[in-house]
Amino acid sequence: MKRIFKLILCCFVVFTSCKNENKNTEIAQETKPKNILFIAVDDLRPELNFYGANHIQSPNLDKLASESLVFNRAYCNVPVCGASRASLLTGARPTRHRFVDAKTEKDHDYPEAVSLPMLLKQNGYKTISTGKIYHGGKDDNAAWDSRWFPKGNIRDYQLTESSEQAIATGYGPPFENMDVEDGAYFDGKIAKKGIEDLQKLKEGNQPFFLALGFMKPHLPFNAPKKYWDLYDRSKIELPESYVQPKTTPKEAFHKFGELRKYDNIPKKGDVPEDLAKEMIHGYYACVSYVDAQIGLVLDELKRLELEEDTIVILWGDHGWNLGDHKLWCKHVTFETALRTPLIIKVPGKTSGQQTDAITEYIDIYPSLAELVGLDSPETVEGQSFVPIINGETPEKDWGVSKFRDMVTLIKGDLFYTEWVKDDGIAYARMLFDHKTDPLELDNLAEKPEYQDTVNQLAVELREKWGKDFLSK
């Protein structure tokens, strides 16, 4: 009888020990910091299948979106590369004198801010910047354990004549259609390096923050021929909003100087229709090309069995005009320049959900920090969207974006913009109601029946553009 009792007792101890061990393993897995794969795509519009478009072939982004939370109303805080990235990576709003243009550097504009990669590095993360994350190659250098960018001329032409011209003058043709392998262009090299990074990180014992910055579809629209061949140019049309209404302030329209630096682009006036369609064709080809490169990286993440331990977030640094309002490039506060693709995959929590919550790019920093169990520094002005991931209804229903004198309040369906100088007094205004005018063709700001709305939005804009907005 005693032997039977001892046997039962022994079995109970073993069972309890195994149960506790399994429980401890579960707790360890739950509290283990998640890796972050942080994918930036330069000049990417939300003109993708999961946003309701059906003409750009991007199967890898579509698949990622089906496993993610898709933000239907995400907006950059500054529609220009350098400033947008510095604002996003610090979680801080732009002001009239901070985060202003493409050459913005975080170290110059806001050196005291602890950036997202620095916060993660300080808390045990391996931080790697591959490709274009900040605009400046040495900005916030202390935040990274390593950083890498492909060698070669930034225009990245494969045609010798164009490449030589770019080296001599800085620019060449606005697009290139060459029968080359994917690895010939920068984005193919960035994907290859990203895959090598993942393989090394797999063997490490640290959580990682791997930031991959892809270059396309930024100008020039260079992509291998097979991606151009995906599209029939005869079916490409100019946008419905290819017009500049007289009711819109003249200040809203620029001369797209960024594009005019390239060959064959007229120095003034509209782009010829055939050339405009060829550029749209090139943009589509570049999106398909970068989609393929991102797919290679995501496939490797899965092959290495890192998927379940890795948050994947993908964002475009701002929108881009493809003839909308007869404009090209960014540098305006029309929705086409402000609205961006933003998707986040959180293992075990996302599976293709969509949200119409208004989300600003400064919200990315506090959200990622919360997802990995870290507190954000006081300099972060964004608001975490983790409650949205958890299925909760957000309280916030607004966002603010700014470029030069333009500052825009996005409030529900209303887009209200003022042009202001250092004194904060408006010298031009525009208001669009997206419920009735999604293409932003009818400026309501000067109509008598909308003056109460304009006055209310003007007050709210100043309440929300940030306490340091007018500070020097």
TrEMBL record:
UniProt keyword Transmembrane helix, yes or no: no
Keywords: Calcium, Hydrolase, Metal-binding, Signal
Superkingdom per UniProt: Bacteria
Record SUPFAM superfamilies: Alkaline phosphatase-like
Sulfatase N-terminal domain: residues covered: 34-373
Entries under PROSITE patterns matching the protein: PROKAR_LIPOPROTEIN
CC cofactor: Ca(2+)
Entry keyword annotation includes Metal-binding: yes
GO cellular component, one term: cytoplasm
GO molecular function, one term: metal ion binding
PANTHER family in the record: IDURONATE 2-SULFATASE
Family: Belongs to the sulfatase family.
Protein's name in the database: Sulfatase
UniProt source species: Allotamlana fucoidanivorans
